[in-house]
Amino acid sequence: MEKFWYLSTCLPIKVNNRYAIFQHAMYFKLKKQRNLKTGSKAKHIFSLQPTRRNKIGLDTIAEMIEQRTSLSRGDVVNTLITLQQIIGERIQLGEIVELDHLGTFKATFKSRGVEDPKTLTVQDLSPRSISFLPKPELKRYLEGISYQIVQEE
Question: With a threshold of 0.70, does the pTM exceed it?
Answer without folding.
Answer: no
